């Protein structure tokens, strides 16, 4: 048995708990039972003492090492096996490899959120959902970013819900601010006259600019290959039984999404023309197998379709690419984040559609997801049967942008496909209070 328990040598476990493990399982407990005890009670104690020791030991280890329930179950299984020769010494890496079959995670990734201290309750709901549905099995770290220091209440409130590593970061003035080239007077006029969601908000515009051009540059994300963006108050309807990071990496995918909508066009009145100006200067940056067709209506005009970025899983090499960085700098200089209200969703979506191959974008049809006001049930009756998701609440599969995405992608991958016929309602983005 001790050969299976080499990792115990590195843990500060009380010696008393280890002594029963050093001798044969049948005779071992007897040494802890006084001879004066009646035979009936002595047999009962001998019968249940190993189980008691196992429970105490597993609980103690969990408290000191933050093991997951899956690891605790594995430890209990190991403890219940027949005796084996005495253990030899092992390195800590060998111990980690034993209880994490793949050793180090195959993908350097994290769950990342830009939140406020007042979002604690909603963020706790999201973490609880993600842990139950996915991360308790995969243990990816969390990174929380804020434009002000996080309170101790917020830090404690999220840490208590996960055994994964949790980091907290603050934004600098460059990434969370208004560039010096923005005309303040013009901006104030825009805020007073805007009649679209968040039209009068400074912070919402700063958030969109940060998510568009700076989040991937934050030092806490420097070593990541992928990130999964999360937000407060969301729901996941299904158990996530596979690792989407690994899936994307193994399949060469750069951008993964769940919900597609059309934008409030007043917020992006000049975004497409500004984009076309950039493309005219850098035609070589556009992928030959792009998804530009998805962004245009049948008349060739920008249709406002975009991936909802409150859920996105991204290979960060895309955001770090020369093409994306040059595109963001062009948009930032144009001032549309402030003079209009360009969102990070249309910016990310246009960039993905133009600079990536169509085959590098992926719609996670099998993920059930809810963001306030919009729900998406997974496609397919077999998948839905494993989820808690009301199909009557889910309407995005038939939306104009998702239908057009699937048809446009198919036409890129199969040039012989017929011209798509567009059906289904046009769903506008739903404003989120903030």
Number of domains: 2
Which class of secondary structure composition applies to the elements? alpha/beta
Shape: globular
What is the average of the pLDDT values?
80
Using DSSP, what is the number of strands?
12
State the strand order across the main sheet: 3-2-1-4-9-6-10
**Radius of gyration using CA atoms only:** 27 Å
GO cellular component, one term: Golgi apparatus
Keywords: Membrane, Signal, Transferase, Transmembrane, Transmembrane helix
Organism: Linderina pennispora
Pfam families: Glyco_transf_15 (PF01793)
Features of the shown structure:
single chain, 434 residues, alpha/beta, Spore Coat Polysaccharide Biosynthesis Protein SpsA, Chain A, 2 domains, seven-stranded mixed sheet, 16 helices, 10% strand, globular, disordered N terminus, disordered C terminus
